[in-house]
Amino acid sequence: MDTSIQEQLQAIIAEQRDTVDYLEIRLEKSESTSISFRGASLDAVDRSFTLAGGIRACHRGGWSFVTFNGLPQLKDSVSEAIAQAHLVGKETTQLALVEPIQDYVAVQLGQDPRSVSLAEKRQLMENYNQLLLNFDPRIQTTSVNYRDRFSINYFVNSVGSCIVQERLDVSGAFAAIARGEGGIVRQGYESVHSRSDYNVLLGIEDRVKGAAERAIRQLEAKSVKGGQYTVVLDPYLAGVFIHEAFGHLSEADFVYENPQMQELLTLGKPLAIEQLNVVDDATIPGLPGSIKYDDEGVPAQRKYLIKNGILNQRLHNRETAGKLHEEPTGNARAINATHPPIVRMTNTAIEAGDRSFQDMIKDIDEGVYAVRMLGGQTNGEMFTFAAAEGYMIRNGKIAEPVSDVTLSGNVFQTLKDIEAIGNDSVYLNGGCGKGGQMPLPVSVGGPHVRIKNVVVGGR
To answer: How far apart are CA 390 and CA 102, in angstroms?
Structure first.
């Protein structure tokens, strides 16, 4: 632990504390490795070391953000941030109160990727890439990406907090693209992630091959016939649905700036069936979205966004909590210290219910089982998602695979149309984009979820 950096940051804050309503410095030291293959070729190898950060100042409600590279620039950058905040501030600073915190958060390491040679990492990814290329002659190309990043994040503010947090992310992403008769193209995807251990990437041949299997399986699938169906979402798609279609609506900066949404999203309002519980939980050990403190020094929490079908809480930074007179929730996050923290999710999920998968499908005469997500978009309360795979459900059983499964609807109606929630919840890793900051580590979770009257589009 480098206490001299902390002392330097604290001294600069102490000098300028009284010149603005609020001041913070975030500094990040990081080292990272990335390796990527495209088809048979090694596409890129990158090693980087950075020391950079950002200063935020707020005065009379006006915010400024100034970045810096290296400690020699820091004093001048702080003065610049303070001058800019004075220029734009015209109102009142409203920040929810937080207690000052002093803490050091260390990573509990398994196999440290920094102790593994670049040659070894490259060879491992090359082997997995070859596995995909050799899986079937119809696999046209692949995309294999490895990344590890270790960072130490320093946070000091004018409230009196001084927090240092270590963070490690190790990930592998594997995609196979297959081409069939008539030029049909399908893809399959798999990813693996750890917050503590390089060894998560060893011995995962079957998971990697799963990406190729899914691509080939979809080549052989016929396009689904468009219409309204009872749809069962797998846990991954259920998690992505709740993150994209509802989680972003829960981010209080979106609500605060949108009077129509404030009306739609009044706390205490029934939004869904009584059995539905939706959480955003940054406290689960080892998940990509897990943090001890957010990027404003607010302790992480488990929050019920929907509890027993009722809108219960929203996600805040200190400013949105102050302006809406609610408690801060520890959801101010940035992809790194050179970006300002904004309101973001952590690990967002539908809580498990009480129904087995077999029980959920047994009385469906004709429906669709939608698996994983290929892509999608949301526009306010409307959503459209493309499933990576689909299967017809016929007479209570999973039947033939179908392709081109897109699901669309209104999120508020869809939450009321949920008919059953499975007992088999899982969390999966992901990356979220917002405000030009992508990909922020998050995870999405849920059980199988059965929904009636879903509009399913085919080709």
So the answer is: 50
pTM over 0.85: yes
Is the domain of 64 the same as that of 125? yes
Closest of 339, 330, 322 to residue 296, by C-alpha: 330
Per the listing, tokens 């059980």 go with 447
Are 89 and 228 in the same domain? Answer: no
Phi, psi of 5 (to 5 degrees): -65, -45
Same structural domain, 196 and 273 = no
Residues 68 and 155 reside in one and the same domain: yes
Q: With contact defined as beta carbons under 8 Å apart, do 171 and 198 qualify? A: no
For 378-395, what is the mean pLDDT? 93
* CATH number of the domain within which 214 lies: 3.30.2290.10
CA distance 167 to 390: 37
166 vs 172: CA distance, rounded Å: 21
> Tell me: the pLDDT tens digits for 161-195?
999 999 999 999 999 999 998 889 999 999 999 99
Residue with tokens 């809580």: 351
Tokens 């509009």 appear where?
455
* Span 239-260, pLDDT tens digits: 999 999 999 999 999 888 888 8
- What is the sign of the dihedral through the CA atoms of 10, 14, 18 and 20? negative
Res 459: pLDDT: 65
Question: What b-and-e string marks burial along 73-89, b requiring 16 or more CB atoms within 10 Å of the CB?
Answer: ebeebbbbbbebbeeeb
CA atoms of 237 and 423, how far apart (whole Å)? 15
| Cα(300)–Cα(317) distance, integer angstroms | 11
Domain that holds residue 194: 3-220
Give pLDDT tens digits for 39-72.
999 999 999 999 999 999 999 999 999 999 989 9
309, 259: one domain: yes
* Shared domain check, 144 and 31: yes
